[in-house]
Amino acid sequence: MLVAAVRADLAAAGDPARAARQQAYMKSDLPYRGLTSPQLKAVLRPLLAEHRFTEREDWEAAVRELWDGATHREEWYAAIALLRHPAYRPWVDPRLLPLLEHLLRTGAWWDVVDEVSAHLVGQVLLEHRSDVTGVMDDWSVDEHMWVRRSAMLSQLRHKQQTDTDLLRRVLDANLDDTAYGHEFFIRKALGWALREHAKTDPAWVRDYLRTHADRLSGLSRREASKHLA
After folding, report:
1. Cβ atoms 159, 192 nearer than 8 A
2. pLDDT digits (tens, 9 = 90+) for 140-172
3. Which of 7, 98, 151, 167 could pair with 139 in a Cys bridge, judged by C-beta atoms 3.0 to 4.6 Å apart?
4. Do residues 159 and 200 touch, judged by C-beta distance below 8 A?
5. Where are the alpha helices (DSSP H) in the chain?
6. Do residues 174 and 148 touch, judged by C-beta distance below 8 A?
7. What architecture is domain 92-229?
8. pLDDT, tens digit (0-9, with 9 covering 90-100), for 209-222
9. Three-class SS of residue 24?
10. Within the chain, which residue ranges are assigned CATH 1.25.10.90?
11. CATH class label, 1-90
12. Given a cut of 70, is residue 116 above it in pLDDT?
């Protein structure tokens, strides 16, 4: 029932003119309904409150149905909102990683990959390091570029709890002379991860920039240095 309600309400709230602009900006194969971010949240909030899941399997199935059957990109955003809803926080654990990886591989664009990585993958890693650190190491050398990006962004929100050994490894695996090191979205993610950690430990980031100077792109260095004096 939730999936049908989400699709119906998104369609009713759409703006075709805005939708065309959004699709062009995002270079998306999926069309948009044309909702702004506040409008999308306003549509989803009551629906997610009303339709609650008591079984994990039903929750995951609804996410997959929204995602795999999406006809418009807002349905992907709805699937992520369902995953992130506070009512289901206890279910955001290592068992969820196969589904999150599926979203990364099939979404394969920065808007969904970054949201899933920073908030969902990041939460699983933070709360289950012993089980998930090795998975991030594997993801950092994956054949899929967006899975690699996810590994680099998985600690964006960890601040003082950042595992700097893991951060170093996933960044080293994607420096300029590696398989995807020339890709814009890898270079950008590498710099972003360093920039965010610089807010917590600028000395660590300065040392990383110094010791890896000959393997970092100019883009990565510029991003990493934005908050460094």
Report:
1. no
2. 999 999 999 999 999 999 999 999 999 999 999
3. 151
4. yes
5. 2-12, 16-26, 37-50, 56-68, 73-84, 97-107, 110-115, 122-127, 129-140, 145-153, 164-172, 184-198, 202-211, 218-224
6. yes
7. Alpha Horseshoe (1.25)
8. 999 999 999 999 99
9. helix
10. 1-90, 92-229
11. mainly alpha
12. yes
pTM: 0.96
C-alpha–C-alpha distance, residues 158 and 141, integer Å: 22
Q: What is the C-alpha to C-alpha distance for residues 39 and 59, in angstroms, rounded to an integer?
A: 23
Say if residue 45's pLDDT is above 70.
Answer: yes
Residues constituting the chain: 229
The predicted model gives 14-41 an average pLDDT of 97
**Whose CA is closest to 120, among 152, 81, 167?**
81
For 205, counting Cβ atoms within 10 Å of its Cβ (0-12 exposed, 13-18 middle, 19+ buried), the class is: buried
SS3 91: helix
Q: Which residues contact 88 (CB under 8 A, 6 or more apart)?
A: 53, 59, 82
Both tokens of 102, joined, read: 């599926």
Joined tokens for residue 74: 């807002």
Specify the DSSP class assigned to residue 160: G
- Give the 3-state secondary structure of residue 180: coil
177-181, long-range: CB within 8 Å, 24+ apart, which pairs? 177/215, 179/141, 180/145, 180/148, 181/215, 181/217
